[in-house]
Design goal:
The chain has one domain: Metallo-dependent phosphatases (Purple Acid Phosphatase, chain A, domain 2). Helix content is 26%, strand content 26%. The chain is built from seven helices and 16 strands. The protein has 270 residues and is α/β, with parallel strands linked by helices. The strands form four sheets. Strands 1-16-2-3-4-5 form a six-stranded mixed beta sheet, with helices on one face. Strands 6-7-8-9-15-14 form a six-stranded mixed beta sheet. Strands 10-11 form a two-stranded antiparallel ribbon. The protein has helices spanning 2-18, 56-64, 84-94, 106-109, 114-123, 155-167, 185-190; strands at residues 23-31, 38-43, 69-73, 100-103, 127-128, 132-136, 139-143, 175-178, 195-198, 207-208, 212-213, 215-216, 220-221, 228-232, 235-239, 257-265.
């Protein structure tokens, strides 16, 4: 029994250490639609978490990769242990590194004070994409609110809300979508988005070889969309494992993640 306790203690120490050990994950997005090379940092599911005093390790890590833009796909705050001052401090620091674009997650949708939170983000210089688009160079950047603002815990209704929100936005030639929940890739692909960035699944919380992630909200046991790249029809989706935790406070074999995407022009074949 002592051996079991010893091994369990080692596993717990390992998990606690790696819950604060951020990994950088690099992707190339290569397309003939890219006119100018650029670098995007994708953050998701911070959940008020801390990585060093005042998030200094996270801030310095973002700064070290020299991004042109920073995209945040929801759950910047946590609805159970909300600390808006911590969110504001992080935003104030990273917006000095690069322009920041934000869409809501389900945790923002739970907070009645969200309108004030949103106003503070905008005041800080963040572009909040609440069912609208902005032009970033050649990119038509689209962002949708989490469907939790309009309904509560109903996947069929959520799916309809997501589709209706996208239908209201005029798409162009080169479209990128920021949307918190990855399980609606079938909806996103209907609109032929070139790229979708999502989070929400926390990498499946516990990750194991072959099996992958163990659990994700709404997707349940052994979820399909937890981390990495997925392609459906003409749409590529990149899912972040996120940074923080929420209801369950620990990850296992699943380091927090900052994604770096390099946009490159596809070379013409000779």
């Amino acid at each position: 029994m002592e051996v079991v306790y010893f091994l369990a203690s080692l596993l717990l120490i390992y998990a606690i250490y790696h819950n604060k050990n951020i990994e950088l994950t690099f992707y190339d997005f290569v397309s003939e639609k890219v006119e100018k090379e650029k670098r995007i940092v994708h953050l998701s599911d911070v959940h008020n978490d801390l990585f060093g005093k005042n998030n200094i390790r996270l801030i310095e890590l973002i700064e070290s990769v020299n991004p042109d833009y920073i995209f945040i796909t929801g759950d910047l705050l946590d609805s159970r242990r909300t600390n808006v001052k911590r969110c504001y401090y992080l935003i104030e620091k990273i917006i000095k590194i690069a322009p920041v674009y934000f869409v809501t997650g389900n945790h923002e949708s739970r907070k009645k004070f969200y309108p004030n939170f949103k106003a503070k983000l905008i005041e800080s210089g963040v572009c909040v994409l609440d069912n609208r688009k902005v032009k970033i160079e050649e990119i038509n950047l689209v962002g949708i609110d989490d469907p939790g603002f309009k309904a509560k815990q109903n996947e069929k209704v959520y799916r309809k809300i997501v589709e209706a929100q996208i239908k209201e936005i005029q798409l162009e030639d080169f479209n990128i979508l920021l949307a918190h929940r990855p399980q609606y890739i079938d909806v996103y692909s209907k609109f032929d988005f070139d790229l979708v960035l999502s989070g929400h699944a926390h990498g499946g919380q516990f990750r194991f070889p072959i099996i992958g992630g163990l659990f994700s909200p709404q997707q349940g046991i052994f979820p399909k969309y937890t981390t990495g790249e997925y392609i459906l029809n003409k749409t590529k989706m990149i899912v972040s494992r996120g940074l923080g935790n929420s209801l369950f406070p620990l990850r296992l074999f699943n380091n927090p993640e900052v994604i770096v995407i390099d946009f490159k022009k596809q070379q013409e074949k000779k």
